[in-house]
Amino acid sequence: MSDLPSAAERFGPYDERDMIRYTIFKYQSDLLTNIESHAQGLYMLRFKAQNSPFAELREKRFREVRGVPDDPRIDEALALGWEEFQKRVTHRILAECPEKLDLNRCPVCRKIVLTPQARWCMWCHHDWH
Length: 129
Ligand SMILES: [Zn+2]
What we know:
Layout: H1 7-11, H2 16-27, H3 34-48, H4 55-66, H5 72-78, H6 82-96
Helix pairs in contact: 2-6, 3-5
Bound molecules: zinc ion (ZN).
């Protein structure tokens, strides 16, 4: 076998909530509300521009181009940090529309696998190609 890092090395022990959060933000960002979507965009921009002397200018331009409204809820959503933001979005989606989540589960161990198209389980190594 190859020496690919195991799932536990990459993600830590299996955590259902964590895998749902990962799936939402990587593959199902269409489930985010407009405010959440703008908050995510701004967070990414600020992260990339954090050491730039033009950070403020870039944000102004970004807001114009993306049509980000001057809505305090956007900054409020990020006030407690990126991790907390992601947790809250995940919590909301699970409470409001869990049926919209498209979770690809391993047929053997029922854990959520890495991608929506995966046919291999990184947790139990079952292969259903
Ligand atoms: Zn499995």
